[in-house]
Design brief:
By secondary structure, the protein is α+β, with helices and mostly antiparallel strands. Helices cover 27% and strands 22% of the residues.
């Protein structure tokens, strides 16, 4: 999964602009908002969160160096994920910072204007039902060809709106990008990162646009180090430009439609377009407009747009970087983006997130993918009845999966099949339980794993020894404990007599 990463900033503000109260008053129905409302940009979403009691404003000065991250980390670990946070006075900058915006299941649903994540499963299943024979190798093309999907393709404007002003000269250090963990970026001495960047690239012919989320390290007023992995959409595009001996145009958007922030994180099949998928998620096409300095389009309503070029021949050392493992990912070579233009709103809000030991905001964002992936897996393996990424497992592609009418051979076959898919290729652990059990009941799953598994029989290893599956479906009904149904009814009818209420 193309997950976020963080740190960023040094210097004085570009200019001093007061951050306005962005709250809008409106009718409420679903979660306290208009059920037909589509979130077009970040500030509409923040307005919605505040009207629903899901936003806290921090009006005292706070430091983008470690302090904002520490506050956010503490709030993220609240039992309910806490509230979204709007830091109105980051030190050294006139721009506000918003964090933990997607840090609960409720807020993820608000972002997509749905009541429950299962609605995503139902909608994706209905889309896949239009494909008679899904093929893993061409699933992106099969989905892209569906009229039900194509109708959510972005609408392209010919001219740029005037809500963003050009920054002259472009200066990344004017923004309060975060330094999240003490040793972030220590290899090169640059410790701040852009943490929720929507990174746009296209192939060498300007087609097959990719919108991914990759960590971007600030390296000065006009330079970024972007860590995209081999196999990612941006890396594939860069290889095409390398073959041509040309620099690759890149644009980075901060803010924009919340659905696109979620879509950019998803490991979608093949080269399925993230912008169209964002339209599918929110049931309304995105509005896109041209960049000012590079031949790319970006969503309307952005807070900040950063444009520039990456030379395929140039790399730099990026990291280390604190992530969800509870440790630092080691420093590694990264692409270098030379910034040629920045445009931003006068009162720009900088969205940010913190990556670290769960539960964190990105865990809840990943639940969107869990519900979509469930529909994909069910379509390919009909016996699957449930799928859950526990928050502590989610970034290792590890899952609890329930199977209907399972048998040992079926579990083994399913595990090896899933390991061959891109979505479970790095799954450290797959736990299979009976279809009648709840995949979200982790206490029950742990209980069954310990009590009902023969480790010599029910552990399944792949050839490399790096991936493991556990068959915890075995449950001998004839030996299971259950109260007599007559006694259950009796106790229920007399419960008030016992004086226990």
């Amino acid at each position: 999964m193309r997950l976020l990463n963080m740190t960023g900033f040094t210097g004085l503000p570009f200019d001093a602009v007061a951050v306005p109260n962005i709250i809008e008053t409106g009718s409420s129905s679903r979660h306290g908002m208009d059920a037909t409302r589509v979130m077009d940009d970040l500030r509409q979403y923040i307005s919605c969160l505040e009207s629903c009691g899901q936003l806290a404003r921090i009006s005292v000065p706070t430091d983008p160096v470690l302090e904002i991250a520490a506050i956010t980390d503490r709030v993220c670990k609240s039992p309910d994920g806490g509230k979204g946070l709007l830091f109105e006075q980051p030190l050294g900058s006139s721009f506000s910072v918003a964090t933990n915006l997607f840090g609960s299941l409720q807020r993820v649903c608000l972002a997509l204007n749905i009541d429950h994540p299962d609605q995503l499963t139902a909608r994706m299943s209905a889309l896949l039902d239009s494909i008679s024979e899904p093929s893993l190798s061409s699933l992106d093309q099969q989905i892209s060809s569906l009229p039900e999907f194509r109708r959510y393709a972005p609408r392209i404007r010919k001219t740029r709106s005037d809500i963003c002003r050009t920054m002259t000269p472009p200066d990344l250090t004017a923004f309060p990008f975060l330094h999240s963990w003490p040793n972030d970026g220590m290899a090169s001495g640059y410790q701040r990162y852009i943490t929720l960047p929507l990174v746009f690239t296209a192939d060498a012919n300007g087609n097959n646009v990719n919108c991914g989320m990759y960590r971007a390290q600030l390296r000065g007023p006009q330079e970024l180090a972007i860590q995209w992995k081999i196999g990612s959409g941006a890396h594939r595009h860069l290889e095409e430009f390398r073959c041509r001996g040309e620099k690759m145009p890149v644009s980075i958007v901060l803010g924009g439609p919340p659905a696109l922030t979620l879509s950019s994180m998803l490991p979608l099949p093949g080269v399925l377009d993230e912008c169209t998928f964002a339209g599918f998620l929110r049931e309304s096409p995105l509005e896109m407009e041209p960049c000012t300095a590079v031949p790319l389009h970006v969503p309307c309503g952005a807070e900040v747009v950063i444009e520039g070029y990456v030379d395929p021949a140039e790399t730099t050392l990026e990291g280390p970087f604190g992530n969800h493992t509870g440790a630092y990912a080691p420093a590694a070579p990264a692409a270098v983006m030379r910034v040629t233009a920045i445009s931003r709103r006068n009162d720009a809000i900088i969205p940010a997130t913190i990556v670290g030991p769960p539960p964190m905001e990105d865990c809840w964002m990943a639940k969107v993918w869990e519900r979509i992936l469930f529909s994909l897996v069910c379509r390919i393996i009909p016996g699957v009845t449930g799928l859950c990424f526990p928050l502590e497992w989610v970034f290792h592609q590890s899952a609890v999966i329930s199977l209907e009418n399972s048998h040992p051979g079926m579990v083994r076959e399913t595990a090896h099949f899933l390991w061959e898919t891109p979505w479970f290729s790095a799954a450290r652990l797959l736990v299979f339980i009976d279809g009648k059990e709840s995949v979200s009941d982790m206490n029950g799953t742990a209980w069954r794993c310990i009590n009902n598994c023969s480790f010599s029989r029910d552990f399944i290893c792949d050839n490399s020894g790096s991936r493991l599956a556990l068959d915890a479906t075995g449950w001998d009904i004839s030996r299971s404990l259950a109260q007599d149904s007559r006694i259950i009814d009796l106790v229920q009818s007399r419960w008030h007599e016992y004086g226990l209420e």
